[in-house]
Amino acid sequence: MAFKNVDLTRYSFEGAQADAITDLSTLDEFDRKRLLYAGIDVNAKERSGSFMHMNHSGVHCQSTQEGLELMDIKQALKTYDGLPQYFWKMVDPNRDEYTRAAAEHLHGGYFIRARKGARIEAPVQSCLFIKGNGVGQNVHNVVIVEEGAEMHIITGCATAHGTREAAHLGISEFFVHKGGKLTFTMIHNWGEDTAVRPRSAGVLEEDAVLVNNYVLLKPVKDLQMYPTLTLAGRGSVARFNSVIVAPEGSYVDTGNRILLNAPDTRGEIIARTLTTGGTIINRGHIGAYQVPARGHLECKGLILGNGVIHAIPELEGTVDGVELSHEAAVGKIAQEEIEYLMARGLDEDEATSTIVRGFLNVDIMGLPRELEQAVEDQINQLDASDAM
Amino acid sequence: MLEIRDLHVCIGDVEVLKGIDLKIEAGETFILFGPNGSGKTTLLMTLMGFANYTVTQGQILFKGQDITHAPMYERARLGIGMSFQRPPTIHGLKTGHLVKMCAREREVDVEDLARKVNFDRFLERDVNAGFSGGEIKRSEMLQLMAQRPDLVLFDEPESGVDLENMALIGQTARQLLDGMPPASCSMKQQKARCKTSGLIITHTGYILEYVNADRGQVMYDGHLCCEARPRDILDHVSKYGYQECLRCLDSDASLGQIKEAL
């Protein structure tokens, strides 16, 4: 099934510069709320660092944490002579028109590096924000976890309240070096009029671990992405966890790809998708080219109302001895489960929303408590809509 | 507490219950025996109100109210509780959370209740996810303790349970049926508290070691027959099997024909 295209000529990729924001808590109430739902704490409590990019400019960048480097990508390119080891190494600038647009016209993005052996306890937060009609945004992010380092990044992408006709093109490249561990949590809070084309790829060295969490609970007009992780080092482990909700009007085409290119590697892709009227294409691909290698892919979809879910799981092995499995299901809530809860005194609506909340469980992501609460609050708000 | 009048129930096009009459008084425990496929579980499911069980004739009264066509949750809120034999797994829903929901507005100490059935380690686990036979039963008991129904329906409480767990489950079933009396109370008080009724399906009769069963009957091919003391029924069935019931029913029928002829 082919990917949908976005007509980039409809958006303006110039002239939407924004002023620096010294203190994120000075943002107005509407913006703060949009950010909160994208996982961003404007008070930066219990955060190792904060970064914000608005429209075409980096507007905020602050960190005092030792062992953590956080700067605008433009600054990093200057400081490190163009970052030859990292910049455009995992994503090909000529891959498609979106990567070309981002290559030709770089607005900014974040450069985050955890230095060798550094354990960054509190998450680093980054926000990519669009405010204004017709704005097209190009960002390029580079994340590096050096040998033995550990870091959690929470990145929230959002449009301001009332923003019409926006587009976001984002390149992200991840490098997790020997024994490093990265947890990368991305929360999308786009508008029902936003087109989104992230292009992400990463590589893991020996014994590296990358856990990639993705949460999309709000409407988005048209989103397509297929991040790929290459497990190049022996003993490396990658996991994708996704929770995706598509209300009416949303078109979401997402997938996760893991390439097991070294022995003793493990990959896991777990996606929970729910449509209450929108379209979700849920792809997944695990390729195993060395042994021993193990991979498991799980995509489960719930249809409530008139939505569409198209699950396309793919497993590919090229050597004797790979162990790959997948589990896919698309359907409605089991009547048996509803009746079980009704026998305990819950009415049908209560039973349904209890099961849906369980289905969209973000427990396994290991999010900070207050973020998990914010996500759960949003899931609870789904209950109030007519679809449930 | 419960009165069933001339109940006929179909699953799809097949009539499974063919005219059931049964009365269970407050505080009384009734045991239902019968071979596989006789309709025992159908009776329980119908009383609870499951969607696939269609009442084509007759009436179910609970606490004097006609609940024949009431939705499940209304029956549960009126005071009917059920211990499932094979409950579904609900992913992402913690057992502890479900127990709390069973209590509805009432405050319950979930941890404390869970300790009583040795289940406190399972409260953070997803409901029924990977539970063994005994664990399922303990989870069901725990939910019922929080729910505190006035009529408890037990669907084969001993199935899939090892002997050690059987004692715990049997004792808990008894507590549920006896009500939970304070530490010191007279026999009279205890009897007065004992308002919970029970309807238990059993194959093996192990549960009889633990609960005070007042009456029992055999279900055979959608009919109830042979009312007797539960122990006597069990002894009889273990000696002669359920074929005996068939003969008994046949002779009843021929008796009816003779009466008609007269």
TrEMBL record, chain A:
Residue span, SUF system FeS cluster assembly SufBD core domain: 131-359
A Pfam family this chain is assigned to: SUFBD_core
Transmembrane domains' residue ranges: none
Assigned protein family: Belongs to the iron-sulfur cluster assembly SufBD family.
Protein known as: SufD family Fe-S cluster assembly protein
Source organism of this protein record: Nitratidesulfovibrio oxamicus
